[in-house]
Amino acid sequence: xxxxxxxxMAYLTAIRNHRRGVRLSRAFVLILFVSxxxxxxxxxxxxxxxxxxxxxxxxxxxxxxxxxxxFLHVGVTLYETMMGFxxxxxxxxxxxxxxxxxxxxNEVMDPYLVVLNALPKIALGPVLIVWIGAxxxxxxxxxxxxxxxxxxxxxLSGFTAAAAEKQFxxxxxxxxxxxxxxKVVLPAGVPHMMSALKxxxxxxxxxxxxxxxxxxxSGLGYLIVYGGQVFKLxxxxxxxxxxxxxxxxxxxxxxxxxxxFQK
Length: 263
Known about the structure:
- By secondary structure, this protein is mainly α.
- The chain has 11 helices and no strands.
- Helix 4 packs antiparallel against helix 5.
């Protein structure tokens, strides 16, 4: 049975206490924010019609539940986001591998990647609607475009900077390019892949909501636009709260995946 010194046990206890303190502080901040929001509404610190309040948000969610449309809108947006996230990150990582494998192509494409990364993707929205049609396909493509370039640039920078001296050593020892990639570049690029996944989570949600703003008959983005048009701001805030919860859960899933890869 493994035994630890008193100092090591004190160190592990300090780490556990720190993590417990962080979790409790996060919960306290959230509870404090919600409480002040509700208290401010009841004491007329702000206009409830504009900023709503937690009780009105929960009532709006309850109405959606009673109408049977809550899971429809959540399901549509979640499906579009997951498809955009998986396709965008998958294609982005694949493109990064190709560009690392072909240095000449990488040098040729580098300025174009910079321009595409800086281009506001929402400008392509009307074009996508004409090309693909006013439906779910154009929304998914919008999410893919927003996350694709970011993923490619982030992962590629990790590949190119991954232990250059080790890559040189592998080539000196006669290793093939595939062996160098699998043994050195890919393991060293995993942290950059995880960073790209975290960034892509937010980008996918942005792409889907922007797409639903432009063309959609269902989804949380549609509810936000509809609520704003008919001045049902409780519905808008309820949709935003649901988006925050879903985005946090999705980000948490990526964080759990990162921990598994780190082990």
